[in-house]
Design brief:
This protein has about 425 residues and is mainly α. It has helices at about 85-105, 140-190, 190-340, 345-365, 390-395, and strands spanning about 5, 115, 375-385, 400-405, 410-420. The strands form 2 sheets. It has a 3-stranded antiparallel beta sheet, with no helix packed on it.
Length: about 425
Amino acid sequence: MPRYLLDDSESESEYSETDESYRSPGRHRIKRHSFSRSRRRISPDSNSYLSPNVISTVRRSASTGNRRRPREDPMVIVDVHNDVRNRQESRDRHDRHERHDRHDRHDKFIEEDDEIEIIRPHRRLRAVSNVSAPRTPSPIQQQRDWELLVDQRILAKNDIRQDLEIAKQKQEIDRLERQLGKSKERHREDRRESHSRHRYDEVIYEDDLADKLRKLERLEKLKRNEEEQRLADQRAKIKRLEEAERRAAEEEEAKRLAHEAHLKEIEKREAIKAEKERIKKELRDEEARKALEEEERKKEMMKLEAQAIEKWKRNEEAKRMREIEEKKKKDDEFRERLKADFGLTEEEIEKRLKKKDEDEKKKHGESGLVILDPGREKTTYIKVHKKYLLPQTLEAYRLPWDWDNVSFPSFLLLYILIQL
């Protein structure tokens, strides 16, 4: 509970008794002058004395001096329901003497015409969020900033309302304290005449003041707890929003990484596919080149074979002609020898030669040159594993070969032409 600064000196200002002034910002200073009050006593069981009949706003006088008409001191309505009075009546009765002694110690600070200066306490700290906004706020961040702004405005309005309520309570307590002090002074003057009655009123005022103080403490404690609870709720809400943003960022990062991995996988597949196409194209080009070379080689071999066959035929024909000439020459020599040695006629010589030919045919078979048919060509494939024969070797010797499509690329196929 804030302290009150009491000034014992009497006011010598030229302002009238109802003048009031406020100084702002920061601290508000209120100067009040005493004025006459009704001495009518109110029943202790009633709290109607807390509700004034006339309510006036706080105004500053337009001028000073005796020309102003006196105006009543502005009052603040504080409707306090003493619902705990009956429950605490027995306990307060035991504490009256202690409270009476405490107020007696403060009597020296109170005068009949006093000037009270109330220093406004520092305002409570407002709830301010320390969350830094990103450069490019997301929809979640904008929603959170808007909710924080709304909460801050609500807290600011609640703080203003609490400050007004506390200020009203303090003004009422101040008024009651001043009334109590002035009542004590009047009671001391009239103590001999109405000691018992004044003592009863003093106790009533003390009880009311104690109730006011307790209620103010409970109110401040309640407001403080509410503010702490609001701040805790706001911090929890901010924490939940930050956690949601963190999870959203993690999910977004995971999606981005998954998308990048998917793109990399697609690029890898495309690269593998392109490499396979390139290899297939190279193989097709190589096969086409080999097929063309093989065709040219076959044509060359066929040409060479035709030339060889033609040469062989010519050689065989020349050989046959030489044999015929040799045989004719031998026959002529044999005829001449038979004529010279034996004196045989041509008919006898023909018979002998015919008999000789028959004997030779019986001995060697049919006489004459036999020309063999070169026949037709047959292609034979030989399957060889590549670890026993390298393709470079076949290329070096210009031998026809190809990969085995069934067991590619482990085996090679060799083409061999066989004449039948």
